[in-house]
Design goal:
The complex is a heterodimer of chains A (115) and B (114).
Chain A lengths: L3 E3 L3 E4 L5 E7 L5 E8 L3 E10 L2 E4 L7 E6 L2 E6 L8 E8 L10 E2 L3 E5 L1
Parallel strand pairs in A: 2-11
Antiparallel strand pairs in A: 1-3, 3-8, 4-5, 4-9, 5-6, 7-8, 9-10, 9-11
Chain B lengths: L2 E4 L4 E4 L4 E3 L1 E4 L5 E7 L5 E7 L5 E4 L2 E4 L9 E3 L8 E8 L9 E2 L3 E6 L1
Parallel strand pairs in B: 2-12
Antiparallel strand pairs in B: 1-4, 3-9, 5-6, 5-10, 7-8, 8-9, 10-11, 10-12
The chains are: A mainly beta (115), B mainly beta (114).
């Protein structure tokens, strides 16, 4: 089975702190994604990566950056956390593009609270 | 741009009731359509998909048919169970619009009571 592992299920951080959310997948997938999930807003794409060291902005990249130094690992970075970044963050990966019918595999999520 | 609109919840049904969750979409090309499900405390997982018009996706008793003429992909199940309680997301991805990522609807929460 494909496994997408997010390093932290729950985090509490203070405003202004630098936050790292880590994601690792074990199926050698080319494509990886970071979404945030908020009640009433569904899932919104922050960034995605289609290869090592390659990244593309999604719909809401402001306040975030990403790093993909190895194929299996995709990190989301909040340079200076703010309260409006309190949310559930979901990492996903896939081999075949969703546009071609590919399935995204999701981690269990990281719930971040910024105080 | 591409978008998905699904009915708002929460939807509360008794066990063995019939379920419909409406989903309509807007896309410039010929998108692939998906239903994902999120059980409490878990990440999302694919429930079913359809990649071209008139295709029917099915899984675990759930079905959805890709209707290009009405731009819809409604989710149905004939007899729901308590274990179906979850949040359901309709989504699309369109190769005419990069095709990398999924555009999700806002989700519909389903509660099935015994």
């Amino acid at each position: 089975d494909v496994k997408v592992t997010q390093s932290s299920r729950y985090l509490v951080k203070r405003t202004g702190e630098k936050v790292f959310l880590e994601c690792v997948q074990d199926m050698d997938h080319e494509n990886m994604f970071w979404y945030r999930q908020d009640p009433g807003l569904g899932l919104r794409l922050i960034y995605f990566s289609y290869d090592v060291k390659m990244k593309e902005k999604g719909d809401i990249p402001e306040g975030y950056s990403v790093s993909r130094e190895k194929k299996e690992r995709f990190s989301l970075i909040l340079e200076s956390a703010s309260t409006n970044q309190t949310s559930m963050y979901l990492c996903a990966s896939c081999e075949l593009l969703a546009g071609a019918g590919g399935e995204l595999f999701f981690g269990e999520g990281s719930r971040l609270t910024v105080l | 741009g591409d978008s998905v609109t699904q009915m708002e919840g929460p939807v509360t049904l008794s066990e063995e009731a019939f379920l419909t969750i409406n989903c309509t979409y807007t896309a410039t090309g010929y998108p692939s359509l998906f239903w994902y499900v999120q059980y409490p405390g878990e990440g999302l997982q694919l429930l079913l998909k359809a990649t071209k018009a008139d295709d029917k996706g099915s899984n675990k008793g759930f079905e959805a048919t890709y209707r290009k003429e009405t731009t819809s992909f409604h989710l149905e199940k004939g007899s729901v169970q308590v274990s179906d309680s979850a949040v359901y997301f309709c989504a699309l991805s369109d190769l005419a619009n990069s095709g990398y990522a999924l555009n999700f609807g806002k989700g519909t929460s389903l509660l099935v009571t015994p």
